[in-house]
Amino acid sequence: MTTNGVMRRDPSDLPRKPGVFVLLNNKSHRCGYVAYASDLQKRAHSFAHMLQNPKTHWAIRDLPKAPAGEWVYTMIEETPSRAAADRLIRLTKKSLAQKKYRVIEGGRRAMPLVTLNGTAMPLTEAILKAKCSDAYITVWRRLDRGWTAEQALGLADPPARWDTIENARRRRRRDAR
Questions:
Q1: How many other CB atoms are there within 10 angstroms of residue 17's CB atom?
Q2: Domain check: are 98 and 117 in the same one?
């Protein structure tokens, strides 16, 4: 949210609920980023922090570097359903493109999908099915680094660069089951 054209770090007027938002730059870059957040208030706070400190917090690689005052964070709708969120994201992107905005692309689903044993499923479901003991964010970051779903979930050996003594211990424990 903005006040006097500046991103605020205290977006207390936003709900702490899931929903779809858009981050727009109407000035120098005329672009938009549309996504789902499980906590709209927390996401607005993190964007404000990121945009005011771009050297250390530039989390979205495709987002042009512009002053925080050029960005506007707007909640589109509270949407607890993934299907409704995906539909709303698609429609909002289409609307921005029609208005000649550059739409910043990337994995913007309400829930990341992975393919495990030939079946596409949400990442959270894959973690449960694989009985993975690693945290969700750990698995997500592994996927972001280019690991396969099986590697990220600990069902296959990690890429050589990431293999550690701890990973070898985990493999031995897994194979002993």
A1: 14
A2: no
Asked if 90 contacts 36 with a C-beta cutoff of 8 angstroms, the reply is: no
pTM: 0.56
DSSP class of 26: -
Q: Using CA atoms, how far apart are residues 61 and 65, in angstroms rounded to an integer?
A: 9
Which of 103, 138, 158 is the endpoint of a domain? Answer: 103
Co-location of 65 and 124 in the same domain: no
d(CA 90, CA 79): 14
Q: 21 is written with which tokens? A: 């938002």
Rounded Cα gap, residues 22 and 89, in angstroms:
9
pLDDT in the model for residue 150: 93
Round to whole Å and give the CA distance between 24 and 132. Answer: 37
Residues 31 and 54 in one domain: yes
23-71 pLDDT per residue, tens: 888 888 899 888 888 888 888 887 777 777 756 545 566 677 777 778 8
Residue 122 contacts residue 111 (beta carbons within 8 Å): yes
Assign 144 a pLDDT band (cuts: 50, 70, 90).
Answer: confident
Domain containing 156 equals: 113-176
Q: Which amino acid is at 134?
A: D
